[in-house]
Amino acid sequence: MKTNSNRIRIAIQKSGRLAEKSIHILNKCGLDLDLRKDRLLHSCTNFPVDLMFVRDDDIPEYVADGVCEIGVVGINILEEKYLSIPDLDKKCFEILFKMGFGHCRLSLAVPDDFNYISPQSLNGLRIASSYPSCLRRFLSENKIQCEIIELSGSVEIAPNLKIADAICDLVSTGATLRSNGLKEVTTLLSSEACLVKTCKPINPEPQLTLDYLLRRLKGVLMAQRSKYIMMNAPKSSIEQIKKLIPGMEEPTIMSLTDSEKVALHAVASEDIFWETLEKLKAVGASSILVLPIEKVIA
Ligand code: PRP
Ligand code: ZN
């Protein structure tokens, strides 16, 4: 079906924390998606792209096998299914870039009243997890012997049910742990959504589609991170201001009727926090405006 076509397939999580944001970013790339309920494959109406909605656990395999040219998946899944497993052929997909959403971490957590000093405190105990490979690697690196109780979900209730003494699970806000009387004690890995590409050969036509899409994706991600900042400032502060704005290229400086002051406009490649605005004010900047950027082509 795909031979002699310029269409590419993107594997996306069908439901869960990455699903909505993955689609949002593709929409921002200008893709019109014809999303119909309960379908595996969804065609884009204005771009030669099809989305395949699958379980996030399966995304690395679809991309590795070349069924999908690219996929959006959490680093946690890649680690669990491929990277933490010794002797596995890992040359089947390539991580292209992180996507700036879906941040979480894989952590060990114990009941609030557990006297945890170091990972050794878990020696001889039972740890429930949906991430047995990552956990096994951590335990072996730290020379700890534990029984791994493999569960596919609701791991956080295992200590209350007395089927485990500790858990190893994803933490984002920490609310799930708190509501189950657990405390986070060690982080095994930090994760966010990333874009993976198959290492299987791609025909020239779909490769062109992919290059085009990747350019747009990078532009959207860069725009999301970047801010446009404008302010008035004393001429004497220009050098200090340049140092305060994160990732700024050379600013545009315009003279004002007040000859001691200038208007300064710049693109910052990172978010600008309130603290930075306070510092800008302290060196004499005024009327500071920070604006979002819609699109960027570098
Ligand atoms: C994850 C994880 C925790 C929760 C943590 O589950 O397993 O239960 O999120 O998030 P929090 O720190 O913000 O509370 P998820 O919702 O992905 O579902 P699952 O456990 O059914 O896979
Ligand atoms: Zn959960």
Keywords:
single chain; 298 residues; alpha/beta; D-Maltodextrin-Binding Protein, domain 2; Alpha-Beta Plaits; 3 domains; six-stranded mixed β-sheet; five-stranded mixed β-sheet; 8 helices; 26% helix; 31% strand; flat; binds 1-O-pyrophosphono-5-O-phosphono-alpha-D-ribofuranose; binds zinc ion
Question: What is this entry, summarized?
Answer:
With 298 residues, the chain is an alpha/beta fold. It contains eight helices and 15 strands.
Structural class: alpha/beta
Roughly what percent helix? 25-40%
Structure ligands: 1-O-pyrophosphono-5-O-phosphono-alpha-D-ribofuranose, zinc ion
Radius of gyration: 24 Å
Question: What order do the SSEs take from the amino end to the carboxyl end, as H and E?
Answer: EHEEHEHEEEHEEHEEHEHEEHE
Total DSSP helices: 8
The oligomeric state is: single chain
Distance between the termini: 35 Å
What summary fits the major beta sheet? 6 strands, mixed
CATH homology group of the largest domain = Periplasmic binding protein-like II
